[in-house]
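With this grant's support, we have settled on a layout for protein records. One resulting record is reproduced below.
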Amino acid sequence: MSWSPKRTVVVPVDFSDDSLSAVDVALDLATDPSGVQVIHVLPEASMMDPDPVWLEIDNANRSERTIEALRERLAGEKYEKIQFEVDFGDPGYRIADFAQRVNAELIVIPSHGRTGLGRMLLGSVAERVIRLSHCPVLVLRK
């Protein structure tokens, strides 16, 4: 199967090896590396948590640290033009929303391959993205 090059490709990254490999697939499918948009979705910080660390960390700080970590993991010349985004909330919804905002032509997402009870309890981000996305979704299996 051949794919025509895409101008904008979104890749959700959770720092797993599979998600980082998905970035390489997206680079192969994009017309230009600057069209690859990597997104990482963090859970909302709970201010109800009594841990004093939450008093010092806001979403802007969390976002900045996450982008730094992404740049460290995706270091190298071929990754220099990639765009990074950090969002907060439910991953499936945030990924689909981001893809629509940047007018993505494709989403490349790995599947962790959960089945049965694990999938039922944890849900499937890939499945949710497929249902909510406005564009094609390429799911990479292990």
